[in-house]
Amino acid sequence: MNNLNSITRGISAVIIIGAFIAQMNDLISRHIFTSLLLFAVSIPQLYTAWEIYYKNDKKWNLTSIAMTILGVFCIISAVSIYIIG
Questions:
Q1: TM spans, by residue (predicted)?
Q2: Are 85 and 32 in contact (CB under 8 A)?
Q3: 58: left (phi over 0), alpha (psi -120 to 50) or beta
Q4: From 7, 10, 19, 82, which residue has the greatest number of CB atoms within 10 Å?
């Protein structure tokens, strides 16, 4: 695990912990909480997909495609929940 991978997972962990603390103290609403969690999940997914893509001589494989779709879906869902909620 390289430094950038650790940084992306650390950022996600901070977002998740901060969202839980804010939700428990009623500082944010449920839809913002859900959006933050989905966004936090997408960060390491997209980084890992990018890393697999470049380690595989810039060729897509099933894992990198699936992780990219999951990451983009999480971001789209987070934005949709934030706008609708």
A1: 7-25, 31-50, 62-84
A2: yes
A3: left
A4: 19
